Amino acid sequence: MKPIKSTLFNMIFSLLAVAAASAFTLGYVYQMTKEPIAEAKNRKTLDAIREVVGSFDNDPFAEKTTITTPDGKYKLKLYPARENGTITAVAIETFSDGGFGGKVELIIGMLMDGTVTGYKVIEQKETPGLGSKIAEKKFAGQFVGLNAYQDQFKLQKDGGEIDAVTGATISSRAVVDAVQKAVQTYKKFNAGATGYEE
Hints:
This protein has helices spanning 8-53, 137-140, 169-189, and strands at residues 65-68, 75-83, 86-99, 102-111, 116-123. By secondary structure, it is α+β, with helices and mostly antiparallel strands.
């Protein structure tokens, strides 16, 4: 078999052929894995919702709504939890871009009167064994029972009562930022329904 002559045209054609084949393969793999990845993320989110709000007998995903932060910059997802047709709590998917490793995403649970029932980290890239401790009960438990209308959501270093993870102030502040974002957005969304005034 006669070898292909090495010309500029042949080199460009070969590169284009390889690029096209690679693009096709990547597109095919993406299509095949897109749905399973989305399903896995939904299961993870649903588990987090259940962990922060407790029991419910509805489908929070079916009733999901989008709420805009008070500054109008971001949109957060709110999942209502119902029992016997009555909304007993909500879970809010919130985030902060201020983590040491970048974006920190979490689900926070709140009763209808604004009391925090807890949060669950669903995505973070904080330093293992240090910033990653934001997901542990020792830190996360400090938020349980705080009320959106009556309490401050600040670290002790910033004049509040929440004790930061030792050696991980940036990660701790990211959680506080995400929680504050959810709390303030909930207050705007639920304005007038609780009897509290801003």
